[in-house]
Amino acid sequence: MIKAVVVDVDDTLCLTEATSFELENEVLAAMGRPPMPRSLHLANWGEPLLEAMPKRSPGIDLEQFGPLFHEFMGRHITEGRIDVIPPENLAALDELVLSGRTVMLLTSRTEPEIRHMLAPDHVLTSRISGIYHRGNTRHGKPDPRAFDELLTHTGLSPDQCVYVGDSPGDASAAGGAGLAFIACLQSGVRRLDEFDERWVTASIAAFPEVVAAVERLGKASNPAG
């Protein structure tokens, strides 16, 4: 029985690769550094930001980049340019909650990168029961141990959870931890044939399809129910 739906943030709950690319290049410009090409951003999209940036901009001073990034990101959030969750995705979360399932987020972002989503007045507050990020987990994706804290805190078993994500790393983390995995292909950043088929339980073209996909998985895991 599927009791919990765990959702990735970037390019799953909201489409962020393109806007993140613009944001990071704005920060690089402010630092007097040349812009990165989109292909380089896509090549390691999904990695923790401070691990990816030395590959995107070799020689970058991360101590200078970090504070500037958070300053610029704050402006983008205020201006509604990043982390905008579409109404239809919020409606899908509502349907999952109404079906009796717990909804949580698990992301590779750090706590400062996700802090605005933890605010009491955020649109997610009434819809999710927890957010797991690099600040409150010991391991990050694609390590299957990224789910350790979530499973320990909730008391759920892996077969009671499904993870919804957009990358092969999401799939291998979930599969290695024993969770079902739904590949969300809405961003167009990844194709289904890039995933290890061993770890993909289902795929969806757009996030709102998650409701029906979870229902199908629930029936498949409990055929007599």
Note down, in words, how this protein is organized.
With 225 residues, the chain is of the alpha/beta class. The protein has 2 domains: 4-15 and 83-221, HAD superfamily/HAD-like (Rossmann fold, 3-Layer(aba) Sandwich); 17-78, DNA polymerase, domain 1. The protein contains 9 helices and 6 strands; from the N terminus they run βαααααβαβαβαββα. It has helices at 17-30, 38-43, 49-56, 62-78, 87-98, 111-114, 148-154, 168-177, 210-221, and strands spanning 4-7, 102-106, 130-132, 161-165, 180-184, 202-204. Strands 3-2-1-4-5-6 form a 6-stranded parallel beta sheet, with helices on both faces. Helix 1 crosses helix 4. The longest helix has 17 residues, at 62-78. The model has no long low-confidence stretch (mean pLDDT 95).
Overview features:
225 residues; alpha/beta; Rossmann fold; DNA polymerase, domain 1; 2 domains; six-stranded parallel sheet; 9 helices; 6 strands; globular; HAD-SF_hydro_IA; HAD_2; HAD-like_hydrolase_sf; HAD-superfamily hydrolase, subfamily IA, variant 1
Short structural description:
With 225 residues, this protein is an alpha/beta fold. It folds into two domains: 4-15 and 83-221, Rossmann fold, CATH 3.40.50; 17-78, DNA polymerase, domain 1, CATH 1.10.150. It is built from nine helices and six strands, in the order βαααααβαβαβαββα.
**Which outline best applies?**
globular
Query: How many separate domains make up the residues?
Result: 2
The strand count comes to 6
User: Order of strands across the widest beta sheet?
Assistant: 3-2-1-4-5-6
According to CATH, the fold-level topology of the largest domain is Rossmann fold
Runs with pLDDT <50, length 5+? none
CATH C-level label of the largest domain: Alpha Beta
Helix content estimate: 40-55%
Structural class determined from secondary elements = alpha/beta
* SSE string: EHHHHHEHEHEHEEH
Cα end-to-end separation = 9 Å
User: Tell me about the biggest sheet?
Assistant: 6 strands, parallel
Number of helix segments? 9
- CATH architecture label of the largest domain: 3-Layer(aba) Sandwich
Organism: Actinoplanes couchii
Pfam families: HAD_2
Protein name: HAD-superfamily hydrolase, subfamily IA, variant 1
